[in-house]
Amino acid sequence: MKKKAKLNKTMRAAEHPFNRRIENIDHLKYVKSLPCSICKAGFYTHDKVIQAHHLLKPSDGKRGMSLKSGDDQVIPLCMFHHTQLHTKFGSEPAFFAHYGLKADFGQKYAKELWFRSIAIAENDDDLPF
Q1: Burial 99-113 (b: 16+ CB within 10 A, else e)
Q2: What does pTM read for this prediction?
Q3: Where do the domains of the chain lie?
Q4: Beta partners for residue 74, in sequence order
Q5: pLDDT in tens, 38-83
Q6: Residue 85, exposed/middle/buried by CB under 10 A (0-12, 13-18, 19+)?
């Protein structure tokens, strides 16, 4: 007779392999090298310091209480717009709507940047030709 496998109840949901957040320092460096998502849309440039904003509502849904979204879910924002998003608006849909962008702008742009970053990493072979 086979023994029934015990469920490990001590494993928290965040530790489950499917719930691990993606961490990629090279992608964050790439995102920080880009212009601010709002400034490049034609608005006044406020600051040259670009920060990688981790989306509050990522497209993959991997976010919860005291959990930051993965590095694949980031967009570039200057310090002014990043602070404005968190302090004045508090939510991405309200922030993007203020600038005339769709509520899912951040999710679509983050996904585009992630795939662009992967393509750059795959083609980076350090050869001079």
Answers
A1: eebeeebbbebbeeb
A2: 0.74
A3: 22-117
A4: 54
A5: 987 666 666 678 999 998 876 656 555 556 788 889 999 999 999 9
A6: buried
